[in-house]
Amino acid sequence: MGESYPFLIIGGGCMLFATVMILLLIVLGRKSSRRERERLQRVHEWAARHGWTVTAEPGIDWAQLPRGERSSVSLLLSTTMYGRHVSVAEYSYVTESMADSKGSRSTTTHRLIVAAVRFDAAYPPVAVEVRGAVSRFGRQVFGDNAAATGHDPFDRAFRIQTKDPQWARTLFGPTLIAEHLAGRIPVWSLAGHDLLTWQRGAIEDPDQIPMLVTPLLRVADLLGH
Predict the structure, then answer these.
(1) What is the DSSP annotation of 139-207?
(2) Which tens digits make up the pLDDT trace of 42-96?
(3) Closest CA to 57 of 77, 69, 73, 45
């Protein structure tokens, strides 16, 4: 009988460890939920003080945003700035990847803060992005695409994506190009009525909300200039 004691001790220790871990996960989950509620409350209170409209789960489908297995805009804050309708939103999408050689899969949730300026007129899709190493190499081998501006420093640093190159080039005047090269405005995407830019994260400091959309307003003013 005495030989079974070590196994009982080990088994009991494993059960105790599992119980402690479960309790720890419950406590951490509750803390995370409380922090999230407090964060959202700060955002709502800030919006009420500053005249922004808040909409939860607005059902907006911005086609130019990154996509995954699931995607949605969970929170939308809107107002009018300098005569333009603007929004700041929280967006998330889920991607799947292979976790191991046995075929099991893991999921990753990506959270983005999206700034948007809405135009009265609708426009064909066009986007400007920073060139990565592959894009720079491709340009060296194959040359510029049809939407290139002809401004070499800009075309080396940025790539324009569009199905209507001739129209897209009319958007990139010398002032817009200079602002991009100086790093004073973000990369952006325009499709339909909406001009967008985005970055990773969630809204932690509501006082930063106007500053999230201000650079995009500059882009809106400089299109074609």
Answers:
(1) HHHH---TT--S-HHHHHHEEEEES-HHHHHTT--HHHHHHHHHT-S--EEEEEEEEEEEEES----GG
(2) 999 999 999 999 999 999 999 999 998 889 999 999 999 999 999 999 999 999 8
(3) 73
What are the angstrom distances between the C-alpha of 63 and each of 97, 114, 117, 142?
Answer: 23, 13, 15, 29
- Residue 129 CA to residue 141 CA, distance in Å, equals 19
Backbone angles phi, psi at 54, to 5 degrees: -110, 130
- The identity of residue 146, as a single letter, is A
Contact predicate 126/190, CB 8 Å: yes
Structure-token match 């985005």, residue found? 198
Query: In sequence order, what are the residues at sequence separation of 6 or more whose Cβ sits closer than 8 angstroms to the Cβ of residue 63?
Result: 125, 191, 192
Q: In the predicted model, is pLDDT for residue 17 greater than 70?
A: no
Q: pTM for this one?
A: 0.82
> Do 90 and 157 contact (CB within 8 A), yes or no?
no
Residue with tokens 């088994």: 11
What b/e readout covers 148-180, taking b as 16+ CB neighbours within 10 angstroms? Answer: bbebeebbeebbbebeeeeebbebbeeebbebb
Q: Extract the tokens encoding 15.
A: 């059960």
Other beta carbons within 10 angstroms of residue 103's beta carbon come to: 7
Distance CA 99, CA 200 (A): 23
State which amino acid sits at residue 179. Answer: E
